[in-house]
Design brief:
The structure holds 2 protein chains of 2 kinds. Chain A is mainly α. Chain A has helices at 13-19, 42-54, 65-74, 93-104, 117-125, 138-142, 145-162, 165-181, 188-202, 220-233, 240-247, 254-274, 288-299, 301-311, 313-325, 336-348, 350-356, 358-372, 378-403, 405-418, 422-427, 434-443, 448-463, 465-481, 485-491, 498-506, 508-518, 524-533, 543-556, 560-579, 583-602, 606-618, 622-629, 643-659, and strands spanning 34-38, 58-62, 81-85, 108-112, 130-133. In chain A, strands 2-1-3-4-5 form a 5-stranded parallel sheet, sandwiched between helices. Chain B is mainly alpha-helical. Chain B starts with a helix and ends with a helix. The chains are: A mainly alpha, B mainly alpha.
């Protein structure tokens, strides 16, 4: 188990050992319970920490929801329970609650000084397992372990009802994920999947309640099927039984579908609340205001762009696509956010983007960030849709790639420019966008690149946090590197994900990216991953490959940019992987992680690169794109994918999916709920 | 000073603060969290509280200068301030804060301003009193440590 507590919590060694017992509750339970506390009030945070320590729990403090999310994503099984405040400046506590419920399925306790009935009710409807009124007394904290046990018990029971078939099903899913990751991933996916399987079996953390809880892995594909079934039936009439029949997945039980449906509904509900602004957006995932809002604050530049893009969802996308690919102008698959991004890129100043660096990022990143906000459930869908779009792009990319060495260089450049740590920061999820900006210029020579990048970003967003980041970076990178064409092909390993290819094809983006990248030279190698990725159609997260490639590129590319890129990619990957249970996320996160490390080393605008890379990657899912961009601000704080962004993207994506059949497999359906496998 | 005397003084002062309503049960609870590893825990909490909230106070003041008054914004600020105040039991400040919120809801500008002035007074008074209290408590602790047989 990973000791996930990074913030000065006690080492988890003892607790892990305690949990490994499996079916037997460790004697010291509930001592050692790993609690994550999220509150913007530092006083309260410190007091709670003290109280929890007095209860012999392991505590990790967090004053920002985004950090908390990234922490949780990085350490899938690192925490047993989360306590979060309701009112926080960067993210609504309920939103965080939903994210956690969808992605990690951990028990979450809400707390607030506000004891109004409505607020408490809201907590209940959003799935909080308890609600504490401040000031919180230590007695109230002593018994929080019951929620952990209860949840495990319920999950276990559900699983048992489903029978062992689920296990088989689960096994299947991971395999699919593996396929997606492909070799480029260097087995990240596999290992993550493997890890997940192992975790499922050992359930180090899950064993806290002494129950091994095999979870159904909602891979992107599975989720796609689920969404398709729901859409077919109509969201109102969709009942688990019918969905199950439509999906026709062996081993899936009605209970699995029921719980997944519940989460999906919550997600939709939340999105519909957010997406009011986006009437224009097909997907209506992104509420321009909502999503862009955070972004703007972060990026400043992009904000405007994003806002604009937000308004032009369909058109921009179509334009981008048309411009980029020259083929299917309207990539239905690509969610609006993607388009927006593309618009951003193409509109912004394809060439100058990189010059401006940050700005570019912003525009590109913004869309991505939007995706961040989208909860995982949405993400899969969006991803799927993005995926589809990405794929189509990917195909185009392939063509592009052939040209492409340059794009990699562009990316490199971008990475360089961006490397300013933006990428890294964004790696948290929202930073991806930053990359694009730097990359933006050179890449889009073909026009495709731009598209691709855009896609990538979006793809990431769709994924949730993880992808966006990676995608962005990748997309960014890939674009510049190749003169658009190249981006599609070689340069962007990230491109491998459908998103990437899309990006390149998109063109507008590409140009921007390409230009930047050009300067860097050694990227090409890194983008090979993209190539690999391309072939894989529904590789949800080819980003993995990207990540890997980026590393490679690092070697190849003399420029720091490479490093930056790779690190950013890696970082993103890290994020992506976190995001999705399925391999895609992993890949991306893995990549992102690597990238980040690389970037960190270079110390440059890693974030930027990452963003770009991620952008590339994300092309598939608009959601992704959104996701990464927002947290541009600090290179080191990239961890936060903008939740709103993602959400918006997701919703947008979802809507898109619902609206159109989508180009390919719209749903990325990552294992939103069981992201255990994500390799860290 | 005689450490027993000091200890008694500390207890008395705390009781008096409690009785006067400056602090409430939460403060006692937080103080109980103090232990050997963090003997100045409460003091640290309060110090960070004042650092954190001083900015809020300034923001509210500035917000009150604006015309027209943005009651939503004011409400948000005061909610934050109250949240932090409840953490360690600053009762009077919380009370004033609650009153302020009521005026915000009623969109009563005058009421808000008056209440805010009162809140600031309470805020400053509490700070003074707590500082004195902590000083005494520190002395008592020192005396206790000093008199402990080695």
């Amino acid at each position: 188990m990973n000791p996930s507590n990074g913030k000065g919590s006690m080492s988890t060694a003892s607790s892990s050992a305690a949990w490994k017992a499996g079916d037997v509750v460790p004697d010291q339970f509930p001592a050692g319970l790993r609690v994550l506390v999220v509150d913007d009030d530092p006083t309260c945070l410190v007091i709670l920490e003290k109280m929890l320590r007095a209860c012999l729990y392991e505590v990790t403090k967090c004053n920002r929801a985004e950090i908390a999310l990234s922490l949780l994503r990085e350490n899938k099984n690192g925490f047993d329970i989360v306590i979060s405040d309701v009112h926080m400046p960067d993210m609504d506590g309920f939103k965080l609650l939903e994210h956690i419920g969808l992605e990690m399925d951990l028990p979450v306790i809400m707390m607030s000084a506000d004891d109004g009935k409505n607020v408490v009710m809201k907590g209940v409807t959003h799935g909080a397992c308890d609600y504490l009124i401040k000031p919180v007394r230590i007695e109230a904290l002593r018994n929080i372990w019951q929620h952990v046990v209860r949840k495990r018990k319920n999950e276990w029971r559900e699983l048992e009802q489903s029978g062992s078939v689920e296990e088989g099903d689960r096994q299947q899913k991971p395999c699919d994920d593996l396929d997606y990751s492909s070799s480029a991933n260097e087995g990240n996916w596999k290992s993550s999947k493997k890890r997940k399987d192992e975790e499922e079996e050992t359930e180090e953390r899950d064993d806290s309640s002494t129950l091994k809880k095999p979870r159904v892995v909602w891979s992107v594909e599975l989720h796609q099927q689920f969404v398709a079934a729901v859409n077919q039936l109509g969201i109102d009439k969709a009942v688990p039984k019918k969905i199950l029949e439509l999906m026709n997945v062996p081993g899936l039980t009605r209970e699995n579908v029921a719980s997944h449906l519940q989460k999906y509904r919550l997600y939709l509900r939340r999105l519909s609340g957010v997406s009011q602004h986006h009437s224009s957006l097909n997907n209506s995932f992104m509420s321009p205001e909502a999503t862009f809002g955070p972004m703007s604050s972060l990026n400043g530049l992009d904000l405007q762009t994003l806002a604009v893009t937000g308004q032009l969802p369909a058109q921009s996308l179509a334009n981008l696509q048309a411009a980029g690919l020259g083929r299917s102008a309207a990539k239905s698959g690509i969610p609006m956010p993607l388009i927006d991004q593309r618009n951003l890129f193409s509109f912004e100043n394809p060439k100058s983007r990189f010059g401006e660096g940050q700005q570019q990022h912003l525009s590109s990143s913004k869309p991505m960030n939007l995706l961040h906000g989208i909860p995982t459930t949405m993400e899969p869908k969006q991803l799927a849709s993005l995926h589809q779009s990405a794929q189509s792009l990917g195909n185009m990319n392939v063509q592009v790639n052939s040209h492409g060495a340059q794009s990699s260089s562009l990316l490199m450049q971008m990475a360089k420019t961006q490397s300013r740590g933006n990428i890294l920061n964004e790696s948290a999820g929202s930073h991806l966008p930053t990359l694009p900006s730097s990359i933006g210029q050179p890449i889009i020579s073909n026009g495709i690149a731009g598209g691709v990048i855009g896609r990538n970003e979006i793809g990431d967003n769709g994924r949730g946090t993880g992808y966006n980041q990676v995608a962005q970076t990748s997309s960014m990178l890939s674009f510049p590197m190749n003169h658009t064409t190249e981006l599609a092909g070689n340069n962007f390993p990230i491109g491998s994900t459908p998103g990437i290819s899309n990006v390149t094809s998109k063109g507008a983006f590409h140009e921007e990216v390409n230009s930047e990248i050009k300067s860097s030279a050694g990227f090409v190698p890194s983008y090979d991953i993209f190539n690999d990725l391309h072939p894989q159609k529904s590789q949800d997260w080819e980003l993995q490959n990207v990540g890997l490639h980026f590393n490679a590129s690092q070697n190849a590319n003399p420029v720091q940019g490479n490093l930056d890129v790779s690190s950013s990619v890696l970082v993103h990957q890290g994020y992506s992987s976190r995001q999705q249970g399925s391999g895609q996320n992993r890949n991306i996160s893995a990549m992102g992680r690597t990238m980040f490390s690389g970037l960190e080393a270079t110390g440059q605008g890693n974030e930027q690169i990452m963003d770009q890379l991620l952008n590339n990657l994300i092309v598939d899912t608009p959601v992704r794109v959104k996701y990464e961009r927002f947290s541009d601000t600090s290179s080191q704080n990239a961890l936060f994918a903008d939740p709103f962004g993602q959400e918006d993207l997701m919703s947008a994506l979802l809507k898109q999916q619902q609206g159109n059949t989508g180009p390919a497999e719209p749903d990325f359906d990552f294992d939103g709920y069981s992201i255990d496998n994500i390799p860290v | 000073m005689d450490r027993n005397r000091l200890a008694r003084q500390v207890a008395l002062q705390k009781q008096s603060l409690f009785d006067q309503g400056y602090i409430d049960q939460q403060f006692i609870q937080v103080e109980e969290l103090q232990d050997v590893s963090s003997p100045n825990f409460v003091e640290e909490i309060v110090t960070s509280y004042y650092q954190d909230t001083s900015r809020l106070i300034v923001n509210i003041e500035q917000a009150l200068e604006r015309r027209p008054l943005d009651f939503d914004q004011l409400d948000r600020y005061i909610y934050q301030l109250n949240g932090r105040s409840t953490s360690f039991g600053a009762r009077k400040v919380i009370a004033e804060g609650a009153l302020f919120r009521e005026y915000c809801e009623a969109e009563n500008a005058e009421g808000c301003k008056t209440t805010f002035q009162q809140l600031k007074t309470e805020y400053a008074t509490l700070k003074r009193k707590l500082e004195a209290y902590f000083q005494l408590a520190r002395q008592a602790r020192l005396a206790e440590t000093a008199s402990r047989p080695m």
